[in-house]
User: Fold this.
Amino acid sequence: MAHAHADDPNRPEWVAHFFHSKEQQLSAAKFGMWLFLAQEVLFFSGLFCAYVAFRWMYPETWLSGADQLNKWMGGLNTLILIASSFTMALAVRGAQTKSPTALKVNLLLTILFAGGFCVVKYFEYSHKFHLGIFPADHYAYEGSTGLMPIFFAIYYCLTGLHMIHVVIGIGFLSWLLFKTQKGRFMDGNYAYVENVGLYWHLVDLIWIFLFPLLYLVK
Amino acid sequence: MMLDTPETPENAEDAPAEEHGDHGHHADEPSYLVYGKEKGFASFLKSWLITVDHKRIGIMYLISVLLFFAVAGFTAIYFRWELMTAAPDVMSGDTYNKAFTLHGGIMVFLVIIPLTPAALGNFVLPLMLGAKDVAFPKLNLASLYVYWAGAALLVYAVLGGGFDTGWTFYTPYSTTAQGPITWALLGAFTLGFSSIFTGLNFIVTIHKMRAPGMGFFRMPLMLWALYATALTQLLATPVLAITLLLVAMERIMGIGIFNPDLGGDPVLMQHFFWFYSHPAVYIMILPAFGIISELVAVHSRKRIFGYGAIALSSVSIALIGFLVWGHHMFVSGQSELSGVVFSFLTFFVAVPTAIKIFSWTGTMWGGSVRFNTPMLYTLSFLFLFLIGGLTGLFLSTMATDVHLHDTYFVVAHFHYVMASGAVISFLGGLHHWWPKMFGTMYNETLGKIGAIIIFLGFNLTFFPQFVAGSRGMPRRYHEYVSEFEGMQYMSSIGSFVLAFGLVFVLCYLLHALFKGKPAPDNPWGGVTLEWETATPPIEHNFHHTPVCVRGPYDFPEIDESLGNGHH
Assistant:
């Protein structure tokens, strides 16, 4: 059927038929993303609770557990993610100012930083596996004290779940880059860019909590 | 039936179109049920399966949920048959364990949680808001497909040998037992996402897409209830997701977080589980409160008593619901202090709930109550839910809970709140919105008979369980001492009556679907926006955005000169 607002000359084509205006559509998209992030925080909160419970039960295990982790690599990854958040913010700015070059360059930089994070994490994990530090049941490293298996169960769950989110983020960022290449997001309809940006900042933020909680216990 | 006669709503429309709004000008536009039909069956089916229309998604949810309801119901009949006698004669203990797990798992994850929000809610929410769809229609369709995927995983687990952990998946049993438990865990995990998607969609839709003139406090109370439900779905479900994921990881790779041998803590799993699953009971009951608020006002022809109190008590129940999970764990070894705190907070939930019951009763007082099918379900709900709610207080008192824990008293209590809350109110809502959904009227006499059979069957099934439970009959036993045989026998007979009642309702509703008289646009004289559009509604709900010019319960026959809704 013909819609009542189809003849409105100020209505961009990308506004879906069930929204009155582009403002309504954009604010709905952003609000939905914030709610999704709230749900993400609660998803992680279970593991953070487990962290608190076990750290309270086994404080000395947490001290020696942090010793097994490489603070420098963790610190490097923190810097990498903060830098990636900065380039992500610049990418959103690029979409707002309708500058395809700024958007593309900054999306690419964000993807590269995210990839860098994965590389550093790969070296960390493989070093641990090499020593026999596996989660819980499969723990085989002799050179540690305390209830290390449970510390590393929490470590692998938290960082692993975070890692999955980083990989999903790389997927979204690449999709944005692909669509930008095809000329999208320059018509004021950049809610996708903003929302991926929000997601990416949350992934960064979770790491900023994980780093001191796991690596800097002492 | 309307599939054959798309022009039905216009035929039924005796009054001039201008009186109802604008749809009369577009008399040729097909209803949401039939558009896409002209190109043959295959493309019609496809137009349903890839639809982003909230009404069609609601109907598909309805069909799926009712299908699983039937499966869970017949499983219940099967083990009630076993329980008629004290001796194990119909099934083995192992089968019994799998049967009640199947019943509980399906009823919780596949039926009651999506029953009202995803099936009825999807249909009515945008219509009541005066919106043309939900904020994210594709996400809405995705939620249905995620539901089907989760259901497929659960069905796979059942066909692959079944699982007998109970729907709660308590460790260490769930991490050590054999069987396809991991698939069941992944199924419930997947279903959680479907619930989150629906909740997220509803919150954004309610915030951003209300019709012009509809402030938050002019929304029908159904929407307040769905809003509170959606908040709970969004904020509690992810915690269940991580819990089930950790249990699955425990099974797959021995992660150890719930394994005491490695320093883990099985009680932590119970905390996580109930942090979701207690709010989940409010996911099941809050939409019921919404339905009852609509039904009691529309069929009493009176403004609802205490609108603000009902609206805000829904939200406060949702919030307090997050703080009471420990009352499931009074005997699990948590500290006495936690026990006392959780017990106190649990009593606190009774306050907003009592406010609602009081307000609904107050609405009927002095109103012109119509004793039709929706009203009979409403009365049935009030009666049953009151019993369920009051027996909840026995269980939130620690001293009595220790005695009643894990007995039939608990089983009876949660069936009085859940089954009466979710299922009875859903049936009331289904009868209330049936004409709008399908464009036909059901037989009122049969409707009343069905409501009465279900009410009687329900009480006969579950009331004896209170008595048996308080005398010490533990739950989850297929063989029991013979002194409980009388009560169990009554309960089983009741369950057969209940099942008969439900099948009876299904029969006359199916008859109404195909042979029912065409329904008028507004059979009950409701003044909320869903009654302003055609019956059944057109694809985009409204031709022009409706404007909300009055409160949701300002019925035309209310005599304003007397004030406050009396007439």
Residues 8-14+26-553 of chain B form a domain with the Cytochrome C Oxidase; Chain A fold (CATH 1.20.210.10). Residues 348 and 391 of chain B are 15 Å apart (CA to CA). The first strand of chain B starts at residue 440 and ends at 441. The two ends of chain B are 39 Å apart (CA to CA).
